[in-house]
């Protein structure tokens, strides 16, 4: 097809015209998708190695999830929590069981789950731990990414995410990620929670030292502090287990979940914790019009059932080995470092060679979609349904890009 007959350039311009420029998307305009593949308005196919920042762990339009959504659309979509609906109980019971916790609290976006976790931890601190009114603090890590609300960006260490959005919410202490001594030094008698990503996704898939999460668990237990694990990106199969914490033998007091919980169809997030923690909330103290709606619950219950089979976690673990072996083979050939676990990888490109953005543009031209983060880092997070051949294809395309 000759270049000026393509629909993409005009469609990209059109998409920019009436939106705030808070994203810098790759110039691809997607119109349909199935499994690990998307198709653009010009009929070109791409292997999706971002998977909606892990919101599409089960691939695009997984048949079981689409069927659940269709069936629910034909019956009931929204009630608000003012009433009970018939999809709610199964979702809460089955998600709580998957998490090994007593209770769940459904919300919509990841940021709302984080906000919920912060509110619950503070209330627990005042009502259960006995922290004096207004004195609670929460310890977080440098390089964190927990979402975009004003409270959450208040404790971001990324200037782009934070600058000019103050005044900032007080009550957070930031310590270096992976540094147990610094964490122990920041915790005091008014600390109600340590809030961490078990692997820092947006920071470039940064895996902490192996003694870190067990050490955090022990410290939190000893000091009567809640360990709140933000598994919004790392959880639900991405790393080769249901939760990234699990791989370190650690059970947090609270899981924050989102992204893949909605099956790539609807925004669904949740907080999961035992009754002594989530039980602090009473009617009127927290909520959301859309949280736990019938459509969300119908889809997310099927997501939980897919995860309960263990198949996706196994695929991620096994195929992740293949992905990481392939990527490690490119170290010294354009890559300077590869991190990650399961089907999740952060790649540092030799900055002398090209930026992460340039690498993603060249990958796109070769039919592979990925996203850069922080200069020369690329993140790969393909759907967990990707095949071994497709992984080899993605690695081969990356090798070709790096070879120039
Ligand atoms: C670890 C983590 N927490 C929270 C969020 C925020 O989720 P959402 O964009 O759905 O608000 C993200 C999003 O990337 C994330 O990676």
From TrEMBL:
UniProt cross-references to SUPFAM superfamilies, sorted A to Z:
PLP-dependent transferases
Q: In which pathway does it act?
A: Amino-acid biosynthesis; L-proline biosynthesis; L-glutamate 5-semialdehyde from L-ornithine: step 1/1
What GO MF annotations does this protein's record show? identical protein binding; ornithine aminotransferase activity; pyridoxal phosphate binding
Cofactor(s) named in the record: pyridoxal 5'-phosphate
Q: Which Pfam families match?
A: Aminotran_3
- Which UniProt key words apply to this protein? Amino-acid biosynthesis, Aminotransferase, Proline biosynthesis, Pyridoxal phosphate, Transferase
Instruction: Give a GO biological-process term.
Output: L-proline biosynthetic process
Q: Which residues cross the membrane?
A: none
Family according to the record = Belongs to the class-III pyridoxal-phosphate-dependent aminotransferase family.
Protein name as annotated: ornithine aminotransferase
Organism of this sequence: Micromonospora radicis
Q: What is the lineage of its organism?
A: Bacteria, Bacillati, Actinomycetota, Actinomycetes, Micromonosporales
């Amino acid at each position: 097809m000759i270049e000026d007959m393509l629909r993409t350039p005009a469609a990209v311009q059109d998409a920019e015209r009436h939106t705030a420029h808070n994203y810098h998307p790759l110039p691809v305009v997607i119109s349909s998708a199935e499994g690990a593949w998307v198709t653009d308005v010009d009929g070109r196919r791409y292997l999706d190695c971002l998977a909606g920042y892990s919101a599409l762990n089960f691939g695009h339009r997984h048949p079981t999830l689409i069927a659940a959504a269709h069936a629910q659309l034909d019956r009931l979509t929204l009630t608000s929590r003012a009433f009970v609906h018939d999809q709610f109980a199964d979702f809460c019971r089955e998600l709580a069981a998957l998490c090994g916790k007593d209770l769940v609290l459904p919300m919509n976006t990841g940021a709302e789950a984080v906000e919920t976790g912060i509110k619950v931890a503070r209330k627990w601190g005042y009502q259960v731990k006995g922290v004096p009114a207004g004195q609670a603090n929460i310890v977080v890590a440098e390089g964190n990414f927990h979402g975009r609300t004003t409270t959450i960006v208040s404790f971001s260490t990324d200037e782009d995410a934070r600058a000019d959005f103050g005044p900032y919410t007080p009550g957070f202490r930031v310590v270096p990620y992976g540094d147990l001594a610094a964490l122990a030094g920041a915790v005091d008698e008014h600390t109600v929670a340590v809030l961490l990503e078990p692997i820092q996704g947006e920071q470039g898939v940064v895996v902490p030292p192996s003694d870190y999460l067990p050490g955090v668990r022990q410290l939190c237990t000893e000091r009567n502090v809640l360990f709140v694990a933000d598994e919004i990106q790392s959880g639900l199969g991405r790393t080769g287990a249901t939760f990234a914490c699990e791989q370190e033998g650690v059970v947090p007091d609270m899981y924050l979940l989102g992204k893949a919980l909605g099956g790539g169809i609807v925004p669904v997030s949740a907080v999961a914790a035992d009754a002594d923690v989530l039980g602090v909330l009473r009617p009127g103290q927290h909520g959301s019009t859309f949280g736990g709606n019938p459509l969300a619950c119908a889809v997310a219950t099927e997501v939980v059932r897919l995860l309960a089979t263990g198949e996706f976690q196994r695929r991620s673990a096994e195929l992740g080995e293949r992905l990481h072996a392939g990527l490690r083979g490119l170290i010294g050939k354009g890559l300077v470092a590869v991190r990650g676990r399961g089907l999740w990888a952060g790649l540092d490109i030799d900055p002398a060679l090209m930026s992460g953005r340039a690498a993603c543009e060249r990958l796109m031209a070769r039919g592979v979609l990925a996203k850069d983060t922080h200069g020369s880092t690329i993140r790969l997070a393909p759907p967990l349904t990707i095949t071994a051949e497709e992984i080899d294809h993605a690695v081969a395309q990356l090798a070709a890009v790096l070879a120039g």
